[in-house]
């Protein structure tokens, strides 16, 4: 096969010197594979198979679990630390958890690549994550419908919450105002003034896909926020 652009999403040891990996690839979406020998000390493949580092890969095998054959670096890894690193870990954990194996998600791959470029800058993090989350929801046909359950328009003065069953919005006393939802419906996911509602909606829309098991990266973000608040007193 032709070498395919890819990023490592998740890696865990397998047998003595190998690893089980989840990759995000340009043409085949999430690919699960065995990377043979990468845990061996001094392995050149081990240095290439790192999070946030662009690669070209090939693999073999007909089943769900492939065997990696080629791993070549195609650039430097994104330099992430602190909150930026946690955002990257969140993106990797999210994609590993919700993307079916080998579902083509070229647009998600593009937004993931753009996110890695944005994460070193604090002002770009929230918007890049929302764009990635929206791309994932679109790929899985799970993006909210910005109407009421019958398909009617939302009242700009009303307040609404997302209904998982219909993926539409229902009246809710403590919900998000209809004006904001209309702006999001027109693609305002990354507008700074809409950051809070956009995050709330993508989180609610992703919840059924993630299930009851919490994301480890979200817990790490919460701990970081608590330490920052404690340090400011």
UniProtKB/TrEMBL annotation:
Kindly give the InterPro entries that the UniProt entry links to this protein. DNA_rep/recomb_RecO_N (IPR022572), NA-bd_OB-fold (IPR012340), RecO (IPR003717), RecO_C (IPR042242)
Q: Name one GO biological process term.
A: DNA recombination
Q: Which UniProt keywords apply?
A: DNA damage, DNA recombination, DNA repair
Record domain DNA replication/recombination mediator RecO N-terminal: where: 4-72
Q: Give the GO cellular component terms, alphabetically.
A: bacterial nucleoid
Q: Which Pfam families match?
A: RecO_C, RecO_N
Q: What is the top-level taxon of the source organism?
A: Bacteria
Q: What function does the entry list?
A: Involved in DNA repair and RecF pathway recombination.
Q: Which family does it belong to?
A: Belongs to the RecO family.
State the name under which the record lists this protein. Answer: DNA repair protein RecO
Organism name: Halomonas saccharevitans
> In the record, what lineage is assigned to the organism producing the protein?
Bacteria, Pseudomonadati, Pseudomonadota, Gammaproteobacteria, Oceanospirillales
Q: Quick one: which gene encodes this? A: recO
